[in-house]
Amino acid sequence: MSGEPAQVAMTDDALTIDILVQSPLWQREPEAESTVMRAVSAAANRLSTRGGEVAIVLTDDSAIRTLNRDWRGFDKPTNVLSFPAAKTGGEMPAMLGDIVIAYETLTRECSDEGKPFSHHLAHLAVHGFLHLAGHDHDNDRDADAMERLETEILSRLGVPDPYVPRDDA
User: Fold this and answer.
1) E strand or H helix that includes residue 19
2) Fewest CB atoms within 10 A around its CB: which of 10, 87, 115, 147?
3) If pLDDT is split at 50, 70 and 90, which confidence band does 117 have?
């Protein structure tokens, strides 16, 4: 895994996706960066996102636990956190925000739910990107809408509906 910033070309303006690998645990999944790139690109295309920059941080439970405690008041690890950037004007592409994904929680959920690593990683990347774009799941109506959008985007990537329980889990 390179950890080098990468760009995904969009239909008009380019969306820049920077992937930063902050934990050596991610070396166990050599396709993680390309999975994240495809997932975020699919979400951006679906939302017709033009330009901008998003940073994806691939980290571990310890780091995400600190972020979750400091920013959300929950002293425990979580699978994904999104940090939308403040809205700004100007000619330079806007920073959309950061998405942070924790390796151990992701792999634990894959095991518990019987999901392939790449499918669950794609789901978390799409979920995080939708938060950056202003979607949320604070109430049932918004949660249903966000889940439908996630499912639609993931189906374009060949990922089954993440909200349907698997029989073999």
Assistant:
1) strand 15-21
2) 87
3) very high
pLDDT digits (tens, 9 = 90+) for 58-92: 999 999 999 999 999 999 999 999 999 887 665 54
CATH homologous superfamily, domain 6-156: Metalloproteases ("zincins"), catalytic domain (3.40.390.30)
pLDDT at 122: 98
Helix segments in the chain, DSSP class H: 32-46, 61-72, 103-113, 117-132, 140-156
Q: How many CB atoms lie within 10 A of CB 165?
A: 9
Enter the tokens of residue 74: 């929950």
pTM, 2 dp:
0.88
Q: DSSP for 63-85, please give it.
A: HHHHHHHHHHS--S--SEEEEEP
Q: Check residue 93 and give its pLDDT.
A: 55
Amino acid at 37: M
Secondary structure of residue 141 in the 3-state scheme: helix
